[in-house]
Each structure stands twice: as structure tokens, then as C-alpha cells.
Design brief:
The structure is a homodimer of 359-residue chains. With 359 residues, chain A is an alpha/beta fold. The first copy, chain A, is built from 16 helices and 9 strands. Chains A and B meet through α9, α11, α14 and α15 of A and α9, α11, α14 and α15 of B.
Chain lengths: 359, 359
């Protein structure tokens, strides 16, 4: 039994952790819910913008351990969150598989699209570990810096979401190309998904080996798919990733974020094998309590725009979540990432509200 | 009792209609579900692109009765849909209230934003009827052209969706400005919503008076709001619009499309007073049958990307819907608008599949 809980004895080790975030994910209880926020290291923080200015491109920042460690730790120093999350981007996986990826200011990721199964040969593991090496160095560096009470989360994009960027060549409104491939040539699209399952398992496992204590899988565009497609392209790959990562690292909790899955969150709770589900802003709280939190730990789901407004609306939103979900296993979080116009003072207010609840 | 069913005797008149679309909305049965498609007049049709090229801006097309009638009728001629829907845009309402609106090619609507309650004075009804006059002429012109079996649908954007464009100045990914206003100054934002409820009631009623036989209210961005906000800014205004339009025109069926409402579709079915709900692609079919179709007529919800791929995936998707929802009151439709890359031959195949079902 070691301090970081990396043995095969599983959940018992996690519950024994001094870190409230890991205690809750391991099935234990805490006096109040732990809190961290999606995209907590980001443009809303002046210190992030200052560090960002020292890097070249956005991808350069992701691959620069010194700067990536720094921006990961900034919100921990400022707000004392219960977990730090690796600063990186879900696009590093297709990039490491050999796809051309770049970021356009104000637009987001751009990729040289892969549009059919016969183009999958362009992707390979030849440079995979070399490209991702700096990310693992970043994880190890963050792990060294965190104190006894703060957990370290590694993450990756889920196959469907990553595939959608790979096929569309960037963000999309209607996912016409990715869906047309998935619907028109499901066997070929399955090859892309299988490739991403394999790459994601390798990537997440390596993060654990470098020091990540929990993992989150982001399926940001799950909500674009009808039920039948969502089961095949989101739920089934998530199950497979959870199963294979847990085979190697049974004590590391895994959080899934199938954003927009609506009532299918229930199916993820029952079938995915994940320890926790991150709820988007649209999931009604009472339903989540009765149908999701009854099965797994829930995380979420404050509307990030309440960190723009603050005040009474923020207080009401936080209390709604705490009063409905706070008595079961809950990691307090947002329902989507912080937006650049969020006010850091409102983030501090939020942390105080959660920490002061029932205190 | 007149041919078009515009009397106060209500549902009985609609059921007596020769138009299958109105029969189903009026609570009657038909041998097979009627069909029309959201954005059926659009860029995927070569004849639309030819007519579009004759208009100046996109708004010019909306305000040109001759051309707007023509593009409305093109898909009726080609596919024989059971309903025509007025060719227009939801942005005509803010435009008619005096907001500056224009369309950027490849971007969508752009507006000079209204960002706070004290700017609402810039909006007024002074030019409302004059700006919208050509739209009513278009409705009347379409009504004259349609045969005995094809119904005419009028439409408007729902207050939350229209307000989001008015506040953001166009489309948005996170709705940060619109939500920040709604959360931070709910009384002020309520004034904007109330103004849009009033404007929408006037606009829809005038469409009925010009010849529209059914109405659809599009709340395209309902899914951006958490439950509490969705109830206040989407469900409550929809109830009010339905109530007030039905006061004036009790026999005209109203379809709501609260896109992304997820399990709150059930609440719209129970509380809104609408005759039908249009389901987005994400609503699981069996759930819709048990929880929505048990209360109201349902419309939907094929993924429009299946009209890009066609083939077996299209056939399977259509049969899924027919087999699950086809025995209750159903209007066959898409779960979102047709995309420009849809193949008109696949649309023809779709119509044949629906018409041939159980035949």
C-alpha cells in the first residue's frame, strides 16, 4: 500500500486516500463534495493568458512541460480545487497518430481530414510515443508538485468526438461528413473507432503510469447522435476503454462525460463500467439523483455562464445542485467548460459556497 | 363550415379535412403517416439554388412573394409532400421590430445586438406590419396554389431562440451573452421575452388569417438551457403563445419544436397545450412512444444526414421510426433541417418508403 494508491487492491486504497476527490470516486464519503471545474486552467485567468503568450501556438503550449505544468497549477494555487486536470487537448491523439493538426485563433482545431477507410493507412503508431512524451512529462511534473489533498486527473477525448474532428477537419455544426461515413460505411468507420479505442487505452494508461490518479473521457458530441448510433459509437467504445484501462489499472477511477446523452445517461450508468458520470447542464437534477446517482458517482453540472453573472443566480444554481445531489456521491463541477468571460471572483465565490455548504 | 376549416367548431372540422396532415393533427387517423421535411425548400434542390440566384440577399428572398411562393412550392411539386411550409426565416420578427438584421454568406444571420433592458426601446411595432406584409402575401399566394390534399404550415421562432440571436448578434456556441442577461437580470430579460411572445402571437395569427392551416414554433436552442431556465424561457412562453393563438384561432393546430429538450419533452406534452411536438434526432423512439405520443401527436425524427447517405441505413432509420411510432399519431419528418449535401434522390426514396409502408 503506497501513498499514491497505485496497487492492485483497488477501491480500498482509494477510500484510504487523503484526497477527498479520490475518496468520493472510491465509494467513500466526505463532509462536503469535492470540487474542480472543467477547463479550470484557461483564458478567464490573467495568469493563464500571461503564460499562454510565452508559448508559440496552442499545441506548442500542450507539448511544453514547463508551461503546461504551470498553467495546470495556476487554478490550484488560486482556488485550492480538489483536483488538478492535466493541461492538454483532445487533439493530441490524432496528432500523435500522424494526422496534421493545427489551431486557428478564434476558430479552434483544424485538421487535414481523413474521410474514408482507405485513408486510415495514413495513421500509425510510428511517432505516437515520441509526440506524446512531453504530455507524460507534464503529468509526472504536476504529480510532483501537488500536495496531499489534491488529486491529478488525466484525460482523453472519446473516440466518436475525436473521430468527428478527424473526419470533419475541425469543429462542425451538423457532423454531416462524420455521420455520413458512420451511416454509409459502418464497417469502415468502425475501423477508425477501433483505432481510436486502442490509441486512447494506450494514452490513458501511460498517463496513469506517469502519475495520473483518475481519468476522464470527454465525449463532447455524444448528443449529436440518435440512440442507435450513440450506443454503437459512444457507449460501446467507452465500455471497451473502461474495461481495458481497468485491466491494467484497476484502482484508477474513470469518469465519462457523454455530453448531451440525455436520458441515455441512465444506460451509461448501468452499462459502461465507469465509476462516475459527468452530467451536462441539461440533465435535470431530480432525474439524475433517481436514475444515475443511484448507480454511480455523479459530477456536475452548474451552467458555466453563472460564473459570468455571479450573484444570486449563481448562489441559487449552486444550492439547487447541492440540495438535490449533495447527499449522494457528488463531485461538484460545471456542466461544460468555463468560458473566457467568466469572472475569477465568481469562481472564488463558487468554491466558498460549496465549501461552506452545511458547514 | 368552409373548405379551409376556419370556423370556431375546431377539431371536428380538421378531422373532416381531405388533407392527411390536418387529419392527423386533428386527432383523426390515416392509412399511413403524412410526411413533410423541415427545410424542404432549400439548397439541396437545384431549382432552389436557381431561384435563390435571382434574389439579392437572403432576406430579399424572404420578402419577395413571387420568389418565396416559388421556392415553397418546388419541393411539393417534386416530392408531393403532405404539407408545404412557408419559405421565410425566424429573423423576420426581430427585423420587423426594428432591429438591424443581415445574412452573411456561409455564416448565417447577423444582428446589431440588443444587450440590456434599456435598449429594448429601440424595438417597436411602428414598422411591424409593413415589414411583414410581403410574408402574409406569400402565405396567401401559396394557399391559392395548393391542391386539396396539401396543407399549409406557417411558422415562427420561439422567444428564447429568437432572443438568443438578438442578444448574441447572431449564432452562438455557448450563448454566454443571452444567458448572462437571463441569469443576471431575469426581470429585464423577461421584458424581451414578453415582447417576443406578443410579436409572435401577432405574427402567427396574421399568417393564419392569410391562409396558414397549421403553425410550427421553432425553439432551436431550447437544449442550451438547464431545466429551471428552460421552463421559464421556453415552456412558459410557448404555453402563452399557444393559449393566445388558440383564443383567436381554436381550430388551427400548433406544433412545438423544443429542440434538445430531452426528457423535458414529456413536460411540453403535458403542459404546453400544443397539438403536436416535433422530436429532435436525439429523442429515443420507445421513450417518445410511451411518454410523449401517449399525450400528443408526434412529428419526427429521422437524422437528416441519412438523406446524404441513403441506402440501407436510410431504410433502417425510416423503418425504426415507422415501427415504433407509426401506429400512433405521427407526422413523419426529420429531427432537424435538411442539409445542403442531401441527395434529392434519397428524399424521393424516403417519401416512397413512408408511402409504401404497410401498403
Amino acid at each position: 500500500l503506497n501513498e499514491t494508491g497505485k496497487t492492485d487492491s483497488g477501491a480500498a486504497v482509494i477510500i484510504a486516500s487523503k484526497k477527498p476527490f479520490l475518496q468520493v470516486l472510491g465509494g467513500g464519503t466526505t463532509a462536503r463534495p469535492p470540487i474542480w471545474l472543467m477547463r479550470q486552467a484557461g483564458r478567464y485567468l490573467p495568469e493563464y493568458r500571461a503564460t499562454r503568450a510565452r508559448a508559440g501556438s496552442f499545441l506548442d503550449l500542450c507539448y511544453n512541460p514547463e508551461l503546461a505544468i504551470e498553467v495546470t497549477l495556476q487554478p490550484i494555487r488560486r482556488f485550492g480545487f480538489d483536483a488538478a486536470i492535466l493541461f492538454s487537448d483532445i487533439m493530441v491523439v490524432p496528432h500523435a497518430l500522424g494526422q496534421k493538426v493545427w489551431f486557428e485563433e478564434g476558430v479552434g482545431p483544424r485538421l487535414e481530414p481523413v474521410t474514408a477507410a482507405d485513408e486510415l493507412d495514413r495513421l500509425s503508431y510510428d511517432g505516437f510515443e515520441q509526440v506524446l512524451g512531453p504530455v507524460y512529462q507534464t503529468v509526472a511534473g504536476i504529480a510532483r508538485e501537488l500536495d496531499d489533498s489534491t488529486a491529478l486527473i488525466g484525460f482523453a477525448g472519446a473516440p466518436w468526438t475525436v473521430a468527428s474532428y478527424m473526419v470533419e477537419g475541425g469543429g462542425s455544426r451538423d457532423f454531416a461528413k462524420a455521420k455520413a461515413w458512420a451511416y454509409g460505411d459502418p464497417e469502415g468507420f468502425q475501423r477508425l473507432i477501433d483505432l481510436l479505442v486502442e490509441a486512447t487505452v494506450r494514452y490513458l494508461s501511460a498517463q496513469v503510469e506517469a502519475g495520473a490518479e483518475a481519468l476522464q473521457l470527454f465525449d463532447s458530441w455524444a448528443g449529436a447522435l440518435p440512440e442507435r448510433a450513440l450506443r454503437r459509437w459512444c457507449l460501446a467504445p467507452a465500455m471497451e476503454i473502461v474495461r481495458r484501462v481497468k485491466q491494467q489499472h484497476p484502482s484508477v477511477p474513470i469518469i465519462l462525460f457523454p455530453r448531451g446523452a440525455g436520458m441515455l445517461y441512465r444506460d451509461f450508468a448501468l452499462e459502461s463500467g465507469a465509476d462516475a458520470l459527468s452530467l451536462d447542464t441539461m440533465v435535470p437534477l431530480a432525474w439524475a439523483r433517481d436514475r444515475v446517482q443511484s448507480e454511480v458517482v455523479v459530477q456536475g453540472n452548474l451552467d458555466p455562464i453563472l460564473l459570468v453573472t455571479g450573484g444570486e443566480a449563481l448562489r441559487r444554481g449552486v444550492l439547487d445542485i447541492l440540495e438535490t445531489l449533495g447527499s449522494g456521491p457528488l463531485v461538484f463541477n460545471l456542466g461544460a467548460g468555463i468560458v473566457p468571460s467568466a469572472d475569477p471572483q465568481h469562481v472564488a465565490d463558487l468554491v466558498e459556497l460549496v465549501r461552506g455548504w452545511r458547514a
